[in-house]
Amino acid sequence: MSDCFLPRLGGIEIQLAELTRMQRRSGHHVEVVTATPDRDGRCAVATEVPVHRVVAPLPWELPVHPRAGRHVARLYSELRPDVVHVHVGALSPFAWAALRVAERHRLPTLVTVHSMWDPGTAAMYRMLDLGAGWRDWRVVCTTVSEAAADPIRRVVRGRIPVQVVPNGVSTALWRAAEPPGSDQPGSDQPGGDQAGRAREVHVVAVGRLAPRKQPLTLLRLLRAARAALGAEVRLRATVVGDGPALPFMERYLRWNGMTGWVRLAGRLDRAGVRAVLAEADVFVAPATRESFGIAALEARVAGVPVVAYDRGGVADFVVPEKEGLLARTPSELAAAVVRLARDHALRASIAAHNSASEPVRCTWPVVLAAFEELYALAEKRALPDVP
Question: Where is the Glycosyltransferase subfamily 4-like N-terminal domain (predicted)?
Answer without folding.
Answer: 10-172
